[in-house]
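Schema walkthrough. Field components (list of strings):
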Amino acid sequence: MEFLLGLPLLGGIVLAIFGHRNFAAEINSAFSLLTLIAAAALTVKIVADGPQLLFEEQFFVDPLNVFLVALTAFVGFTTSLFSRPYMRIEQAHGRLSAGRLRLYHSMYQLFTFTMLLALTTNNMGILWVAMEAATLTTVLLVSLYRTAASLEAAWKYFILCGVGIAQALFGTILLYFAAEKILGHEGVALLWTHLNEVKGQLEPRVLSLAFVFLLVGYGTKVGLVPLHNWLPDAHAEGPTPVSAVLSGLLLNVALYAVVRCKVLADGALHSNLASLLMMGFGLLSVVVASFFLSRQKDIKRLFGYSSIEHMGIITFAFGMGGPVASFAGLLHMTVHSLTKSAIFFAVGHAAQKCGSQLIENIRGLIKLSPTVGWGLMLGTLAILGMPPFGVFASEFLILTTAMKEQPWATPILLISLGVAFAAIFGKVQPMVFGEPAAKRLPHKPAMLPVFMHLALVLMLGLWIPPYLAEWYRQAAKLIG
Amino acid sequence: MNSASSLLLQFLELVTALVAAPLLTGWVNQCRAWFGNRSAPPLLQFYRQLAKLFEKEVVLAGNASSLFRAAPYLIFACMALASMIVPTLSTDLPFGPAADAIALVGIFALARVFIALAGMDIGTAFGSLGARREMLIGFLAEPALLMVFFTASLISHSTSLSTIVETLAHREFVIYPSLAFAGVAFTMVALAENARIPVDNPTTHLELTMIHEAMILEYSGRHLALIEWAAALKLYAYSCLGLALFFPWGIPEGTGLASLWVALPSLAFKLLIGGFLLAAIETVSAKLRIFRAPEFLGTAFMLAVLGMLVHLLLEKAT
Amino acid sequence: MSHLPLYAQIINLLAAALLLLSFAMLAQRRILSLINLFMAQGIVLCASTAVVAAATEQHHLYWSALITLVLKVFLLPWILHRLIRRLNVKWDIETLINIPATMMIGLMLVIFSFNLALPISELAGTITRSTLGIAMAAVMLAFLMMITRSKAVPQVIGFLAMENGLFFAATSATYGMPMVVELGIALDVLVGMIILGVFFFQIREQFDSLDIRHLEKLKED
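Field assembly_structure (string):
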């Protein structure tokens, strides 16, 4: 546990000093690997011993967050592998100076740190602080190129998420306001475990208002419509590794915060307000995002919108609640993280090869570089929910549960998924199989992370290892 | 209740108002001169001016109607009545029950209507222009003033000025945040209503920027004297109103003339401070363009409404 | 008619002052005055925190009052002053469209938040419970200010003012959050401000202006 949080923090400091050296990318990967090992150790411990409270109850690890910790550490590690050659090429193209690279490496580690802090903390206040810190680090990452467009994207991101997260703080204050009457002033009134114990006694009216604020606040960060405006811009204008971790990890962490709040709200409210709100926002996100997909010209924006769509699906699943839907939501979180980051890796290489992020400029990848082309194609098929990939399994579970519990929502979901399929596939197909327009660039892509992720997704689609399933089940039980 | 003594008090209030009003105007002018590093006119200058004007003969325009001749008297009467309603020396006034805060706003409005009509009566361009502007400002200022009164009324559960003052002055000391809003709003309204900077400039000689002065350009002799005196009375009434609402301490509740020993000096002291502050405000602010005046008064109105809201939220529990 | 204790009255007064300042910021055209208003808000916050600390004898609140004083009365305004001097926007005047309409919307927002807070205030265990509505209104007004501004610096001041409103909610309505949270929030705000300061220079370099209307290239087409 100490290592889990300490390593990325240390990494951030070390890379702030050495981040511009040639071996910085290797150090970055090494720290990410060590973090992954620490996460794995923690996971093993939690799976063996059950939920744990650490450091005077300030940290809390249960199956729900340890699963996300492991996922975060894993994708963090593979992304660092991908970013090593990617950022070298960017530097060689002169888009980045050595100083920028140092900033990038340092912020990458700090970003990992804030996410892990947000995941493991037991204190709702610290959760907020960590989310805000994650915003700040990613603002710096998004604006890394310092171009007009990236500055605009970062500015939008900062202002929108800043405002959103301020709403979340208000929600947190309201939560504290409700809790301090029962738990007193001694500082335990913001600890989630304590709140969870007394959630039945929390004043429903305050809690419903608090939940609305928290959902809007953290929902901004999840990218739920109508608070999603920052997301495509930030994804498109930041460096590709950052897009990968934004989509694959940060959105998950924000959604995790929402889920933690929902557990409290459900306990206090004796009504399904929280579920309805989450389902509503989720469904809206799915619909709006899938219809925006077809209008995109920039490949990274396209997949940014796809992230909104998938976050909507997961939010909807958690909103429905129940063991199956929550299980499916968690599974979808995992496969989406893996697939989407794999896609961004492939897209990053493709864009570097063609020297452009515009869809019309990327053509014939299969001839330019078969591995990148196949990686992108398979990733796209996976994210669109084609069997036998894992996304199919989770979407199938969500849809069947929806059919049983909320039949009215099923056609909406199905139509949206269909529209999304048509839009994305129609755009990616010529990119991969069309006539190549660009000349071949010499550098070799790092495709290992892409295929590693896709293989995992494929495995999850065909066969979920029993201990993993058990783990999901436990986490789903926690969500309720 | 001793009706004789309260009648006497009422009479005394009128006399005080008539005497003190020009003095207050003189004091404000003096302070302004000090702030502007000019040598100040004597404090009693206003009296001399009035005396001189009363002696001069009245020159009337050929097409002046009877309304034009009657207006100065009506306006003066309105202002005198207004200053009798506002509790300055005592809250036990025979006029108190007859006219409350809303009636007071009505009296001010009546005076405004007459001065505007008189301004247009001769048919000169400046008169109509001033009248139109005056009505614009009055139209915006009145709701704000009413809102200020409502806030104070909500606190004391009465629209009678006497009751308001009694509630505010003679209860246990309580901080009313809403009155802070109302106070700021009232100050803004008072500045606008009394033709002071930043809405109007009482000493301007530039016809295009005038409001109040433009309407009375055609008056002369005793008519002008009455109007000037009425303007001074209006300033006095507003000042006393502000003092009564926001700094009511020192206004005796009891009957009897003995309390006058407290009331008169405290009134004089408060007016001195108030006049000084008025001059200070006028010195530090610049005159607004006439088109910005709605913005200024809109802000006043908003503050007054805010005051009322704050009262409903913060002070309801009290 | 029973009266509130004196300290509660003072807090109510400070709450009203906070609201008044929020409105003043909404209507203020000059950047320099905006910063001064922000500083005044900081002073009000610090005073209210100190009063709450004295009244409830929670010593950690003295610390948060101190943090507020250092951060919001000295440090942030100082950074902002430096920024606008270095950016040469000290005397910038923003052309605001239609202040009365903005004010009216602001008034609606205040009524809205009072209404929202009213049922909650009644449940509060603290004596200064009614301040929650004011805090919410201050947050909403800051939000409105951010929407109506088109220059970068006023927008950021709006953001900070929003944080002020939240802080006021935390201290006055609930008697303070746990210390560690407050420290974290303060740190985040400070770091955010510094990052934004760097940002301003970048934006001006790229766009030759701090008018964020230039930042509207990324749109759906």
